[in-house]
Amino acid sequence: MRFQLNVINDQLPGTIDIFICNSSFEERSLAILKQIDKSSIKNAIICSNQDQNDIVGENANTIVSLLNCPVLLAKFNTEDPLTIADQLIDKISALITGVEQNIVVDVTTFTHEALLILLKIFKLNDLCSLCKVTLLYNSASSYCSSANNADEVWLSKGLKDKRTILGYPGRFKPNNSLHLIMLVGFEVERAKHLIEAYESDKLSIGMADKDESVEYNVHEVNLNKYEDLKVVYNDVEEYYFSCIDPVKTAKSLNEHINKFENHNVVLSPMNNKISTIGCALLAINKPEIQVISSRANVYNTVSYSEPSEYFYKFDLEELLQHKF
Fold first, then answer.
1. Domains of the chain with bracketed CATH
2. What is the mean pLDDT of residues 4-11?
3. Which of 60, 181, 198, 261 sits between 20 and 30 A of 12, alpha carbons compared?
4. Distances (CA, A) of 107 to 61, 133, 316
5. Residue 284, SS3?
6. Within 10 A of 238 (CB to CB), how many other CB atoms are there?
7. pLDDT tens per residue across span 221-260
8. Which residues pair with residue 213 across a beta bridge?
């Protein structure tokens, strides 16, 4: 559900035993924490890409300065996804007491890869049976504010690499064709490189439905980028997903996948984190689906996004109860 950011404390437990967030070059990595009553937070885990410390270190220090509780730093290395899993397991395990606890996770600026790994850790360790896990997301009011028009909007350039996300390997059948399914946003250039790298037998490109977008202005830019892709790739299957409801995203993906039998499915989440959670829900239910990460060569660290005045809240246990 969506709420005004200034009423966030009314929507959170009085005591937050573990607060988990990710430091990023985006100001949105601070938006939720700035509004939370710091006295309610008993312990915190700050995730940070140490190999990008030159661009994320300042906000990591700001997060520490905002908190009035013990802080554990989960040191990620984007070149090695095993460090992401190891650090998350190590830091979360250190704070789990075995009795009921409130865990609040600000997923806003996690990478798609780190978020998917985190969700799989919660699932595999059955942490929702011990703890109440609340996911928060601060939507962006705009992207690439320095752009004068939609054509100038860019968030990243190039494709550095692609890899299967840890915990989502898929179960491929050797005689099946390959079906690449993308949830695209603004990063058309990276999407093109990924499509060319896979050379899949079937290609599906999803677009966020207008009524399921976080902001109308964001949807309009997204639509322009989507049309750019369709011009290049004529033989493409289209579908729509939600940027505000992960369950709806999982359902729409599942319905689309079921239209095409005898295909090994590769899922590429490239839109907002709410839709990425939807990808996780479906892939957790259907382990035959492979989920991939694609990293860019360059990111727009100067004007990537602007925080909105809203946040979305989800109960992880309720999300995981859905079957597809």
1. 2-141+306-318 (3.40.50.10770), 150-299 (3.40.50)
2. 98
3. 60
4. 18, 12, 12
5. helix
6. 11
7. 677 777 778 778 878 999 999 999 999 999 999 999 999 9
8. none
